[in-house]
Amino acid sequence: MPKRRWWIAVGIAATLGVAVGAVAVAAPSIAAVACPRCYGLTGLGGGVYAERDDDAYRRMVDAAGERVAAFYGGREAHARVLICATEACYRRIGGGGEKGRALRTDALLLSPQGANEVIAAHELAHLELNQRLGPARSKVPSWFNEGLAVLVSEDPRYLRPGPDRCRVPYEQALTITRTDWSAVRTDGYPRAACVVSHWVADRGGPSAVLEMISDLRAGKEVFDHP
């Protein structure tokens, strides 16, 4: 290779290296999803990567996916799942104080506390809704998105068994529809789950969510408080 071309190649490689390094520093989650092994995660198959080489993680993710598929009648979102066994790992891949984090339609990050079937199903439910909505995802208010994820995952912390799933009075729960989600804490989940469980039941079941998705994608208004 002529000397000038060699220096050009070196310059390009250096530029790319700086760019990749910048992404890793500024957005570690993106870098970790792109290269899980670079962050010490082992591939378990099926797009699942974990800090600890344990097939139980893969079975847990499969079971969580089955909850989502049972609600929607199938799954359209198929993303990478990154699971950490230590807090140091979770911070390294861009996690914070949450138990899990869904990255649009691309990936799911699970902390040590979130590495269970219910939390995984909750986050996979977010991915599924995002995937099915496409650009219309911004039309769904956060309270509905979170309440639906609780319902899909069948989280017993926020839902009771039986016809009335609410763990808080329904009239009290309705205040969540007029509240900025960023202003609520843990008590937002039982309220959102209560309202969404009523919304789905009153409209005949999970098929109402599919109809809602279709309406939103068609440009129709569904929510008064997006």
From TrEMBL:
Domain of life of the organism encoding this protein: Bacteria
InterPro entries associated with the record: TAT_signal
Protein name as catalogued: Peptidase MA superfamily protein
Native source species: Actinoplanes octamycinicus
